[in-house]
Amino acid sequence: KKRIAVFISGSGSNMLKLADACEAPAFPAEIVAVMSDKPEATGLTKAAARGIKTLSFPRKAYESKQDHEAAMLDALAEIQPDFICLAGFMRLLSGDFIRAWEGRIINIHPSLLPLFPGLNTHQRAIIAGMKVAGCTVHFVTEGMDEGPVIGQAVVPVLPGDDADALATRILTVEHQLYPAALERLAAGNVWMENGKAVFPGDATSKTTG
Ligand code: GAR
Question: EC number(s) (predicted)?
Answer without folding.
Answer: 2.1.2.2
